[in-house]
Design goal:
Length: 228
Amino acid sequence: MSKGSTSGLTRVLTVIIAIGGLVMLVLGITMYAVASGELGRQNITVASVDEGSNGVENGPNAGKPVQGPFTALSQIQAITHHLQQSSQVATGGTKDATTGVVTGGDPNVTYGTAPSLSLDAQGNCGSTTAQWTDPAGNGTIQCTKGAPPEVTGSINAASMASLRSTMTTGSFLISSLFVSVLAFGVSALIIGLGILFLIVSVVAWTNIVRAGAGGANGKPGRSSAAVA
């Protein structure tokens, strides 16, 4: 392959890389904007996190609208915190009415470990029969259809009956927000690759131009030396 054809192929590849980088940059920015817009239209605000001894310790994004990856992660943290509080209350924890801080109880009950039971308006067990023991040792609950729930230890029957539903909703919200965070991450990756491709193409094209200019300047010199 001649030097001229090699130079031409290099130019073509450089242009292709530049076009690809530009397309990736535009695509990444568009994806990021769409994800941010759709998330913002849900009108979600980062919830406060009432933890610590005085209940006023909040994340840096508390109260802000969820429109980006950092506010989405803050909302995930807040939801997780409140799910843990619900778990604590259901297993005997006490919530301070002033600070919102929950002490005691088991914060580690999840959707997968919470019992599936329900109570009717009279406080009797619904259509399901269930028996559950708190792994942390806070007590047990046994529910027989039509009968009042039998509890031992510090288990709160009313809170336990609604815990699984609360965990289901919270888990769904966390999963949805994680998908949004993933979309933002992919968009950022595409934007970064697009910028990288553009930089590579600019550097390559600059070198091609310099090489061409150097060759053009060298020819007269070699011709002059041959004539001499």
